[in-house]
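Hello Y.,

Per our agreement to keep a running log of every chain we model this quarter, I'm adding this entry. I've kept the format consistent with earlier entries: sequence first, then predicted structure.
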Amino acid sequence: MSDSPKYVLGIDGGATKSSCLVADLKGAVVGSFIGPASNPYTVKEFDQVLRTLIQDALRSTNVSQLRLVGACLGLAGAGMKEDQQRIRRMVFEILHDLEKEGSIAEFVNDVEDVHNIIVCGDMVTALLANVEEMEGVIVISGTGSIAYGQNANGETARSGGWGKYLSEEGSGLYIGQRALKAVAQAHDGRGQTTPLVNAIIKEFGADSMDNFLLLARKKEIENRDIASLARIVNDIAQAGDEVSQSILKDAGYELSRCVMAVTERLNLKSGFTLVIAGGVLTNIDMVRNSMRAYLQEKIVPGTVVFPSRDGAYGALKVAKITYERHNKE
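Predicted structure for the entry above:
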């Protein structure tokens, strides 16, 4: 069995869905499974979701004598070391249980300790899935926002992504909050008149500004509902509204600051790959163009790309490198 092919497992666990891949050390994928969200903070019975992902991906391989030697999980909401350690132990136990049960034909768990299991934020694996080398920066703007990077020396840095009370600048949440404030300011006479007022009143199902304000004060509006207002802001900005355009351009500026904070800490000035991801950056040209315009004053990325591969491919890359590092002998 010691000479049999070795395999690694990679998971990309997002807020809406998760994917799990199994591949050999040359990168050839032999098994896969798509499952539900696996954010450890928000998903109930997270351990069971994780077990199902791993089990069904391993079962899909049809590989005789599948020898698993490493795993990496890139999970939304798993950026803190305490959470990573807890999840590593969880995966370690899941793998040993699956081998003991014998429910997967000829599966051999050769992950001897938790050091061959890596848990990281999903921005790490999303970046590594979409760069050729282990160097680059990713900026993500969806409901929330974050910038993350890694240089050729293996040093890493992040900026943003600390939650709605501390950051998320440039995100859909930021745009939606700015839009709501613009509506209130226009109503009070503290801000410019804007078509956002009627559009947002209609979006929330109110029949007047007074009813909308009453609704907003009495009801906790979900983050996703606030972030979804970015679509309305974009539509109205496209029609020429200066308030909406200002909000989107400011979002781009804030994202550029996140990227520059990362590149400065990693001493990346030019030649690196910048990955642009998330619904706001991929779908709202004004935000993306604003961000790039501000960045051009300071840094010159070698290439700017949209994600073309699932984060699970980045997780496979990390699992392989980790195994090889621990087994140089």
